[in-house]
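Translate structure to sequence.
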């Protein structure tokens, strides 16, 4: 497979918190217009890696570059500009309960642009259409189903047209049908808008549907890095075990 340009490079990233080493020389790359999945058991360090990439932790050891910028070398204003170009979809969706869906989505546009209310409203409508949500503009988050909330949160993460989107467990808590529809939405956004994504998940059914490339973490170490098909052919017992168990779980839930 011809590789697209590299958009994220993580090199020998190590991190120690409270005298415990959490990350051990983590290294991988993510490429343009691909979905890179970070997977691994609970506590393996997935969110910690993501938080480093998002600049929420200082880099103690190693190096990260995003869209060609070395995070340790850029100025604060360059950093602000960089993160404005990145969409983030948080585990709990990150929508404010006191605002309507329309207001929630419009907020970043109000804060970061000079667009007038009418323009903001039409951009918000456009994004809601993109994630197949209609007639929820004036609804409050509490009035939406779990799957609808996820899609609204996804629309919010994309409101500024980011070329790069990060999602931490976007499918957590969804039933298999809603999960499959969220996955196909993510793949469509990649194919139609050319958005590159880094997605954390440990649901094998999702990984099989969305992943181009895989970073497998175990206890803060990368035990596998490669394409999905390389992962499925991998001789590594932990990688095999992960996919075999997950596929069995997936099949049994499908048949039940
Ligand atoms: N700021 C911190 N200070 C101390 N320990 C931390 C900190 N952040 C994470 N850890 C520890 O690092 C380890 C990895 O945590 P992390 O949240 O990255 O795991 P994860 O792979 O995202 O797990 P999950 O699937 O449950 O979300 C855990 O043992 C956690 O307790
Ligand atoms: Mg996590």
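Result:
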């Amino acid at each position: 497979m011809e590789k697209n340009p590299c958009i994220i490079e993580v090199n020998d990233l190590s991190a120690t918190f409270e005298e415990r080493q959490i990350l051990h020389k983590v290294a991988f790359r993510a490429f343009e217009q691909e979905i890179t999945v970070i997977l691994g058991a609970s506590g393996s360090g997935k969110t910690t890696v993501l938080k480093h990439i998002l600049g929420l932790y200082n880099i103690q050891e190693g190096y990260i570059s995003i869209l060609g910028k070395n995070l340790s070398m850029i100025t604060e204003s360059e950093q602000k500009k960089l993160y404005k170009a990145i969409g983030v979809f948080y585990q709990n969706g990150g929508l404010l309960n006191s605002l309507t869906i329309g207001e929630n989505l419009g907020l970043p546009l109000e804060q970061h642009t000079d667009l007038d209310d009418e323009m903001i409203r039409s951009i918000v409508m456009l994004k809601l259409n993109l994630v197949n949500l209609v007639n929820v503009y004036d609804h409050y988050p509490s009035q939406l189903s779990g799957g609808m909330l996820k899609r609204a949160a996804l629309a919010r993460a994309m409101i500024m047209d980011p070329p790069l989107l990060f999602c931490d467990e976007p499918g957590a808590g969804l039933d298999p049908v809603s999960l499959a529809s969220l996955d196909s939405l993510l793949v469509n956004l990649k194919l139609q808008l050319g958005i590159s994504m880094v997605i954390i998940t440990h649901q094998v059914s999702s990984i099989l549907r969305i992943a181009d490339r895989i970073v497998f973490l175990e206890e803060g170490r990368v035990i596998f890095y490669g394409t999905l098909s390389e992962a499925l052919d991998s001789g590594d017992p932990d990688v095999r075990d992960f996919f075999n168990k997950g596929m069995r779980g997936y099949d049994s839930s499908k048949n039940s």
